[in-house]
Amino acid sequence: MLRFFSLISKNAMRNRRRSILTICSVGASLCLLGVLMAIYHAFFFTPPTPEQERRLWTRNRISLANIMPIAYRDKIRRVPGVQDTMVMQWFGGVYKEPKNMFSRFGVEPERYLRIMPEYKLTPEEQKAFVSERTACIIGKDIAAKYNLKHGDHMILDGDIFPVRLDFVVRGIYDFPTDNESMFFHLQYLFESMPPRARDIAGMFVSLIDDPANSSRISKDIDETFRNSSDQTRTETEKAFQLSFVSMLGNVKVFLMSVCAAVTFTIILVSANTMAMSVRERIREVGVLKTLGFTQGEILGIVLGEAAVLSFIGGLLGYGLAMGLANIIRQAPGFFAEFKTLTIVPPVAVLLLVTAVLIGIVSSFVPAWHASRTNIIDSLRYSG
């Protein structure tokens, strides 16, 4: 069919207004489809980093809202394959106004710096964070949003914990997928609480020796507390992150359902356009057959015209999806995957292939009928 490419390209744009509107409608729909496919890929197909592969997260088996005794930390460290374990405690609280939302965690500074090496700090910042009880570190996005710099104070009023904590910013980190978090001394939180409310843990983060042993180590950790009043659930960091996504429901089914609905809508729009185009050219089909074009060649020409229009719409949709992904990256987001959201090459190829298939599927029925119409009926057609 390549020898008819010139004819196909000219016929595809013969009705410019209709062709441009078709391309725009396909492009807008494929933009949405591309972003949804990118989100699906980011959640379920993006491999963990080498640092993430070496971390396991342990939480209460019931839910993240249930706490565990801090004494679990030492027992986890004794599990074969675990190199170190730290406590992380979600604080919540309010900074100035309730609308100022960002993650706030109490951690053990020295262990935090060993287990989370991606959160880069200068040696001076690390030393200040470890040595000062009221020190905290924040992401660069928080620093920019609230105009904070080294030495500034941040006062948090607790909601989960009824305390008022005054922190001093001693470090500002830059991390691609998380620049909207705050970390501070867990011990400072404990010292501000009544003795009976101390020594609790929301999560434990463990550094393991070999990612290949993560499944075995996770089972050993959970087995250690199987008969306790607070049983645990241990999983890889990637699985732990996806557990937040699962709180929204079956995200896989939701994304696939929306993608299917969008694809079906595009097919209907394209099918209507191609049906009108073919009806207007029935007599031309008769002329082509008179000149010696076979049924297969006519079918290929009509399908090629639809594929060209859809492919151009796919390119437009790809460009729009890239722009929308960039907007999502810049916006505040709860999921780390949104901070690196982009249309990766596999998603781009799948998007363009989908565009071509949509064009072929939507035009197949009218093209098939046109190619099988005999010469006499074609030349007599007056619709």
Give a brief outline of the structure.
The chain is α+β, with helices and mostly antiparallel strands and 383 residues long.
Distance between the termini: 28 Å
Radius of gyration: 30 Å
Shape: elongated
Order of helices and strands: HHHEEHEEEHHEHEEEHEEHEHHHHHH
Q: Count the beta strands.
A: 12
Q: Helical segment tally? A: 15
Helices and strands: which structural class?
alpha+beta
Which residues form runs of ≥5 with pLDDT under 50?
Answer: none
Any overview of this molecule?
This protein is an alpha+beta fold. It is built from 15 helices and 12 strands. The protein has helices at 5-12, 16-44, 50-53, 72-77, 109-115, 123-131, 140-145, 186-191, 214-224, 237-246, 251-279, 282-290, 295-330, 345-372, 375-380; strands at residues 55-60, 68-69, 82-90, 94-95, 103-107, 135-139, 153-157, 164-173, 181-185, 200-201, 203-208, 232-236. The strands form 2 sheets. It has a 10-stranded mixed β-sheet with strand order 4-7-8-6-9-5-3-11-1-12. A two-stranded antiparallel sheet has the order 2-10. Helix 2 (16-44) packs across helix 13, helix 11 (251-279) packs parallel to helix 14 (345-372) and helix 13 runs antiparallel to helix 14. It is elongated and about 95 Å long.
What is the strand and helix layout of this fold?
Layout: H1 5-12, H2 16-44, H3 50-53, E1 55-60, E2 68-69, H4 72-77, E3 82-90, E4 94-95, E5 103-107, H5 109-115, H6 123-131, E6 135-139, H7 140-145, E7 153-157, E8 164-173, E9 181-185, H8 186-191, E10 200-201, E11 203-208, H9 214-224, E12 232-236, H10 237-246, H11 251-279, H12 282-290, H13 295-330, H14 345-372, H15 375-380
Parallel strand pairs: 5-9, 6-8
Antiparallel strand pairs: 1-11, 1-12, 2-10, 3-5, 3-11, 4-7, 6-9, 7-8
Helix pairs in contact: 1-13, 2-11, 2-13, 2-14, 11-14, 13-14
